[in-house]
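We modelled the chain as a single entity of 262 amino acids. Its sequence is:
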Amino acid sequence: MNPQADPAEDALLQHPWLPVTIDGVQLLSKPWFGETAYRILLTDMQSVWEEKIEAAAVEKRAQELNRRLRASAAAFFSHLCEVAQPCLSGGQQTGGEVQMSVNRQQDGDLTLRLKSELAGLPFYWEFRCSPAPVALVCAHLVRPLLAMSRLLQSHVEQLEDLLFRKDEEIQDYQENGATLSRERLQTEVFDKQTYSEDFIQKSLPLLCSQPSDAFGFSADLQRLYGAIVAHRGARKRKWPEETGAEQNQPSTEAAAQTLTPG
């Protein structure tokens, strides 16, 4: 029997990776804040860290770091969401009101220390992130990026095919006596190999000279990422239903279905 999907995991998976700069350190952030719990993923493109915390741990840590403050877990969490979410979502940190620093531990952990103000008193918080397991990195980075790459490659191939057919259409017009009214509209016949080589030669040095551009997706790529993980999530939710319906089938048939691509 398959385990039930974690709602927090599904919600986090569908969040985009957002470029943030904290204490001068460039990161990609994936934050999710629920009603009394949060989960965040962070990466500097060399390591990936995560933290998942529930209501009881929120109250305990808040009291540990703020002995002068007395409030409920809900009050602590509400304030934490208000001040931390913008910092972890690419928003601007407001000059002395909210301060956040990054501390890398020797054991590989990453701690984000936050300082703000609650009820006229200093409020402190620490996001204590540990290295993420490989399965989590694959789910949130590797598989979606590979799927995006395949989808974009398919898109390019369709555009190439469209260009070939456009060239054939133009050639047919020309053979039947059509001429351009403006010379500036004249284009060369599309050659895939020449175009690809020229594109790589010009674009690759530019990309390598600006490593900061690697932190973050454009709006279009964020939408593509969201569409892919949403589709994968829908397939995962559908999978237990299909598995339950197939449990009564002969074992050889079930094995064959398990090995079916996709």
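As a brief sanity check on the tokenised model: The mean pLDDT is 82. The chain is about 50% helix and 20% strand.
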